[in-house]
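Reopening this one. Same input as before:
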Amino acid sequence: MTVLNLINVEVMYASAILVLRGISFKVEEGSIVALLGSNGAGKTTTLKAISGLLHTELGEVTAGVIEYQGERIDRFGPEEIAKKGILQVMEGRPVLEHLTTEENLILGGYTQKKADTKADLAKVYEYFPRLVFVKHRTSGYLSGGEQQMLLIGRAMMGHPRIMLLDEPSMGLAPLVVQEIYQIIKRLHQEEKTGILLVEQNARAALEISEYGYVMENGRIVLDGPSSTLIANEDIQEFYLGLSAMGKRKSYREVRHYKRRKRWL
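Same output, byte for byte:
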């Protein structure tokens, strides 16, 4: 069953800058979907359009429809969307740095009317045992990996049906990235949480997702099962940095993808 559906969505900032140019894609119930693309492709804008955060940045959906469980949500504010079960983990690890780790986590449960804070914290600490040792530490002094775990844990406190993850591997050591991706996969399998994963680390994203979309200049230009995309020659050259002969190739040498038609 389709839980999240974007149909020919356009987004404009300050009534002047067109960023998304008619994108369409779906997220099925309990699935992991990867959204790939280089810097400036429009990935983060797509997540903010879904979560309602565009309204805080002079952005708006100017055409198309965003549906969640069959209900149009692109005119709702971020708080209302969060209460419906869509929670975004933003890039750059924006923790509330003057609060402790545990205080950050507790705030994540504000959307739940009958939250069992103690049980929810216990579950987060089960997934992220490292946070137990820093729960009384001011979050601004955590390592990058600990802050990323904190942000995912804070989203978990809101009992998301869909979690929007924006560049969870950015700036982290490979071993930390591996640990976080293992936890994301476990969260998906055990909690049945749907995940829309924005990444420049294409290999990591495609290895845990079922389906993927590639963005270029505000458009979806390629999509398919993740196992197919990771074997695609263009994906290997542009995102994995390998030519068909196994040699490194610069972005300038890679041909553009064949444009994908809009959905009607």
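So the earlier flakiness isn't reproducible anymore. For the record, Residues 248-252 have pLDDT under 50 and may be disordered.
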